[in-house]
């Protein structure tokens, strides 16, 4: 226990006001213009006079760069920017369908309807043909089942790559055709 240090846990974000450790700082005013290099006490007094916070913007610079801003308002604007960025990001979903080599015609139609619905929602579809037991000796039937599934879907989907074997499965990924073409 004699080896432990007593220090405060690391905080999130930049250091503000009296948490800034430097003796001198390069100060930037609330309007964005450079004030110059000042002792930390003088910079803190200026912040207090204006009713703002002294925020360490660039701690690695010599001397560290600090700015006079309302820290609460600054954090609020940062969270709003993060929310906006999160809203704009697009999550591409990958749906999966499994077939067997000896699938019936009606079952293929059902699978096609699922694929059409998912593609209209802009999702990728991963189609797998599962081979069990002796079906492995008839891989050509799996290719034929995939070909049957693809008939009627050519106008709305494209294959990401040619079908390939992954262990006992024949796999192909289908992408929605883009509107730009």
TrEMBL record:
Domain Translation initiation factor 3 C-terminal, residue spans: 92-177
Any one Gene Ontology molecular-function term assigned to this protein's record: translation initiation factor activity
Subunit structure: Monomer.
Main function: IF-3 binds to the 30S ribosomal subunit and shifts the equilibrium between 70S ribosomes and their 50S and 30S subunits in favor of the free subunits, thus enhancing the availability of 30S subunits on which protein synthesis initiation begins.
Pfam families listed in its UniProt record: IF3_C, IF3_N
The family this protein is said to belong to: Belongs to the IF-3 family.
Keyword Protein biosynthesis included in the entry's annotation: yes
UniProt protein name: Translation initiation factor IF-3
Gene3D superfamilies in alphabetical order: Translation initiation factor 3 (IF-3), C-terminal domain (3.30.110.10), Translation initiation factor 3 (IF-3), N-terminal domain (3.10.20.80)
The keyword Transmembrane helix appears for this protein: no
Gene Ontology cellular-component terms listed: cytosol; membrane
Subcellular location: Cytoplasm
UniProt GO BP: ribosome disassembly
InterPro entries per record: T_IF-3_C_sf (IPR036788), T_IF-3_N_sf (IPR036787), Translation_initiation_fac3_CS (IPR019813), Translation_initiation_fac_3 (IPR001288), Translation_initiation_fac_3_C (IPR019815), Translation_initiation_fac_3_N (IPR019814)
All residue ranges annotated as the Translation initiation factor 3 N-terminal domain in the record: 16-85
Keyword entries, A-Z: Cytoplasm, Initiation factor, Protein biosynthesis
UniProt main location, coarse: cytoplasm
């Amino acid at each position: 226990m004699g080896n432990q240090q007593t220090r405060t846990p690391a905080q999130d974000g930049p250091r503000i006001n009296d948490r800034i450790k430097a003796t001198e700082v390069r100060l930037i005013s609330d309007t964005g213009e450079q004030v110059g290099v000042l002792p930390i006490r003088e910079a803190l007094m200026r912040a207090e006079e204006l009713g703002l916070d002294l925020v360490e913007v660039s701690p690695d610079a010599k001397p560290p760069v600090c700015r006079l801003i309302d820290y609460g308002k600054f954090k609020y604007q940062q969270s709003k920017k993060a929310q906006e960025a999160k809203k704009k990001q697009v999550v591409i979903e990958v749906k999966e369908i499994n077939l067997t080599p000896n699938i019936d015609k009606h079952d293929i139609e059902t699978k096609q309807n699922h694929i059409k619905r998912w593609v209209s929602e802009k999702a990728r579809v991963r189609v797998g043909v599962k081979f069990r037991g002796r079906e492995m000796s008839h891989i050509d039937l799996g290719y034929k089942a995939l070909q049957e599934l693809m008939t009627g879907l050519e106008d709305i989907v494209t294959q990401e790559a040619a079908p390939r074997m992954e262990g006992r499965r024949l796999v192909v990924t289908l992408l929605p055709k883009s509107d730009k073409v």
